[in-house]
Write a structure and sequence with these properties.
With 589 residues, this protein is of the alpha/beta class. It contains 18 helices and 13 strands. The chain has a six-stranded parallel β-sheet with strand order 4-3-5-6-7-8. A five-stranded parallel β-sheet has the order 10-9-11-12-13, with helices on both faces. InterPro entries: Exostosin, Exostosin_GT47.
Length: 589
């Protein structure tokens, strides 16, 4: 008997179906929840994680590749206990490290450090170093460039025995105070072209010398350029005249110090007028040597007693006077004495006419002086005369209120400095005689210490010098005279064998001016400043600019400095130099 199949009641069937449906719904909810959390985790790590400012994760490019976790997407049909994590390598591009708790460094710092003179500029920041920013490196030249010339002093001049003038560190023999014109000490018969050796000996006493070229504010070249050319001005060919200059440049260019700025931080001194070093051609008949036209020398600064208004590589410094103080008291006593003097002459002139120069106003000045009852004249000519006696000259200047200073054979005269040393107000007739020459040593406002009467007022208009000077009020006269006396310290060269305590002399002012010039140039190089608009023929104008000014324009003195046309400039300058040299015969001994 077959058994009948079991029949399930409808209610039991429904209960089993309901159990299956509940399990399916539960699985679905679990999957949905897992999918939701996966999406949330993805959104957090993949999207928000890239923009997070959380400092717990740092990327340092110097650590190389950085391993970061990446969360993958999971298929919603899969059920996983936990998301799997893969590791991949991501290379981060190098970025500048960010400083912590300090000011960001300038991006220009690495650029600045590439200049080899930066260390020298930074010495000024050391407030405990009195020489910071003032160090001078002196080249140790072969003796042929300086000391050998002094040993052969008889050959330094065709007409003058220079041996006695090179004694006493270049000051020359002492002057006796027989007539009471000088002080008892500090006065010497100094030759007007002896600045080479005087300056070099003063440099030996400079308080901030260094052998470390990396901290040098400037480099001094102790070459006796003036003595060198003086030996060969007459009767020697151009190769002889140029030999020492070429040898010097060749020696300097091999030195590592030269490479710092290509010579633009170097300077030397020549106690002669610039035209002795500016021969324009290779013609044997042309005057002087070509030192200042050599490419290397154009980078250097040359200090001369008369500079060119049309060139940028020479600078005027005072002619030496007869007074060389050894201490501050020598200067103070002399200044006090000049203030108390009775000056019986309104104006005076010491000089000779220039009949062979049609442009010279000396003849007219001499004529006016002879006709005036308030003018003192010392006529100078070849041979012995009081005009060549230091005592006679200083005595005349000390007894005069104004001292006339027309051009000599060239723009300048030593007489102008002798006059101011005597407290006498100088009267100039050409701006090139002082105003554009000695801008380091004299005030730019020339009315403070001098009187200017244009040459044409004398030459063409026959203006009375006496009447012009009489128009100056007593108050103005006193102010100008006091200004002249106050200038005395920086117009004289102190005794190289001693040292002034507090005062600055002509040497100190010149050295500081060179340091300032080189420092400014170095800073301009670092800052990228260029003088693209610089016109060398207007060099005399740039010297008159105020601080911060860079551009020049038309000037009231333009007619005085109209450069001669090509072919004439050399003749004019050479002729002036020849006449200047020829007149040295008057100082022969």
């Amino acid at each position: 008997m077959r058994r009948r199949p079991l029949v399930i009641a409808p209610s039991e069937h429904m209960e089993r179906g309901a159990g299956k449906n509940q399990n399916s719904r539960l699985c679905f909810l679990v999957l949905l929840s897992a999918f939701f959390w996966i999406l949330l985790l993805y959104f957090h790590f993949a999207v928000l994680g890239g923009q997070s400012d959380d400092e717990s994760i740092k990327l340092n490019p110097q650590d190389g590749p950085v391993d970061l976790p990446v969360v993958r997407k999971f298929a919603p049909s899969q059920v996983v206990d936990a998301p799997k994590v893969d590791v991949i390598s991501i290379r981060v591009p190098p970025q500048p490290p960010q400083p912590v708790d300090r000011q960001p460094k300038s991006t220009a710092e690495p650029e600045i450090q590439k200049f080899s003179f930066v260390k020298a500029l930074k010495t000024v920041e050391n407030k405990s170093d009195p020489c910071g920013g003032r160090y001078i490196f002196v080249h140790d030249l072969p003796s042929s460039f300086n000391e050998d010339m002094l040993r052969e002093c008889k050959s330094l001049s065709l007409w003058t025995n220079m041996c006695k003038f090179t004694t006493n560190a270049g000051l020359g023999p002492p002057l006796e105070n027989v007539e009471g014109v000088f002080s008892d000490t500090g006065w010497y018969a100094t030759n007007q072209f002896a600045v080479d050796v005087v300056f070099s000996n003063r440099m030996k006493q400079y308080d901030c010398l260094t052998k470390d070229s990396s901290i040098a504010a400037a480099f001094f070249v102790p070459f006796y350029a003036g003595f060198d050319i003086a030996r060969y001005l007459w009767g020697y060919n151009i190769s002889t005249r140029d030999r020492a200059s070429l040898d010097l440049v060749n020696w300097l260019e091999k030195r590592p110090e030269w490479g710092i700025m290509g010579g633009r931080d170097h300077f030397l001194v020549a106690g002669r007028i610039t035209w002795d070093f500016r021969r324009l051609s290779e013609e044997e008949t042309d005057w002087g040597n070509k030192l200042l036209f050599l490419p290397a020398a154009k980078n250097m600064s040359m200090l001369v007693v008369e500079s060119s208004p049309w060139n940028a590589n020479d600078f005027g410094i005072p002619y030496p006077t007869y007074f060389h103080p050894a201490k501050d008291a020598d200067v103070f006593n002399w200044q006090d004495r000049m203030r108390k003097l009775e000056r019986k002459w309104m104006f005076s002139f010491a000089g000779a006419p220039r009949p062979d120069n049609p442009k010279s106003i000396r003849g007219q000045i001499i004529d006016q002086c002879k006709k005036s009852k308030v003018c003192k004249l010392l006529e100078c000519d070849f041979g012995e005369s009081k005009c060549h006696s230091p005592s006679s000259i200083m005595q005349m200047f000390q007894s005069s209120v104004f001292c006339l200073q027309p051009q000599g054979d060239s723009y300048t005269r030593r007489s102008a400095f002798d006059a101011m040393l005597a407290g006498c107000i100088p009267v100039f007739f050409h701006p090139g005689s002082a105003y554009t020459q000695y801008t380091w040593h004299l005030p730019k406002n020339f009315t403070r210490y001098s009187v200017f009467i244009p040459e044409d007022d004398i030459r063409k208009r026959n203006v009375s010098i006496e009447e012009r000077l009489a128009q100056i009020s007593p108050g103005q006269l006193k102010l100008r005279q006091e200004e002249v006396i106050n200038l005395i310290p920086i117009l004289v060269y102190a005794d190289p064998r001693s040292k002034l305590e507090t005062l600055k002399d002509a040497f100190d002012v010149s050295v500081q001016a060179i340091i300032d010039k080189v420092t400014k140039l170095r800073k301009d190089i670092i800052e990228g400043h260029t003088d693209d608009n610089f016109i060398e023929e207007n060099s005399w104008k740039y010297a008159l600019l105020e601080d911060g000014q860079r551009e020049v324009g038309p000037h009231e003195w333009d007619p005085f400095f109209s450069k001669p046309k090509d072919g004439d400039s050399n003749d004019a300058s050479a002729e002036a130099a020849k006449k200047s040299w020829k007149n040295e015969q008057r100082d022969k001994s």
